[in-house]
Design a protein that fits this description.
alpha+beta, Muramoyl-pentapeptide Carboxypeptidase, domain 2, five-stranded mixed β-sheet, globular
């Protein structure tokens, strides 16, 4: 299988899968089991990014990675906003295991200020948004530099979302049944 499990020990990251909690924009858990998987190509880039981050004195907190097609449909049904939620009829990079949502932590494990929260569907969540504090803008640029240097590309509307280039043409979609232990129950 092309999906590999991402563990804190192997990738030197913290994992907080927000869609397995009610701390997401739907207000309810989407996954019944918090798990973090990526396509092996994305996992290799994450490992490189984690090393770069450590050299900069920061660490990643992973908020979402592989997202089964069933979960994408649930998110779209709740909020069909194509700027922030991929239409499941076309598939998303998350459904291919090549996208990751993340933020940065300082050396004490505190989240850095990014100007908005994760999944905040607002113009201020966009890269290059006006009206951010100097610190938030610098933190976003640090995250951007690390992720692009490791082989990811950014999505303009979400400072937290990174994916491998040409995801839709290079990688297949996966469903929950692709996993040995389903995330959706």
């Amino acid at each position: 299988m092309a999906l590999v499990e991402i563990t804190p020990q192997e990738y030197d990251v913290e994992i907080d899968i927000v869609y397995a909690t009610d701390r997401n924009f739907t207000g309810a858990p989407i996954y019944t089991r918090p798990a973090c998987y990526l396509h092996q190509d994305a996992a290799a880039c994450l490992k490189k990014a984690s090393l770069i981050a450590r050299r900069q004195g920061v660490k990643f907190r992973l908020l979402d990675a592989f997202r089964p097609q069933e979960a994408q449909r649930a998110l779209w049904n709740h909020t069909p906003n194509a700027d922030f939620v991929a239409n499941p009829d076309f598939g998303s990079p998350h459904g291919r295991g090549v996208a990751i949502d993340l933020t940065l932590l300082d050396e004490n494990g505190k989240e850095l200020d990014m100007g908005t929260g994760f999944d905040e569907m607002d113009i201020k969540s966009c890269h290059g948004a006006d009206g951010l504090s100097h610190g938030a803008e610098a933190n976003r640029l640090l995250l951007l530099g690390i992720m692009v240097s490791a082989g990811f590309e950014f999505y303009d509307h979400e400072w937290w979302h990174y994916q491998l280039p040409n995801a839709r043409s290079r990688y297949p979609l996966f469903s929950d049944s692709s996993l040995r232990s389903p995330m959706m129950g």
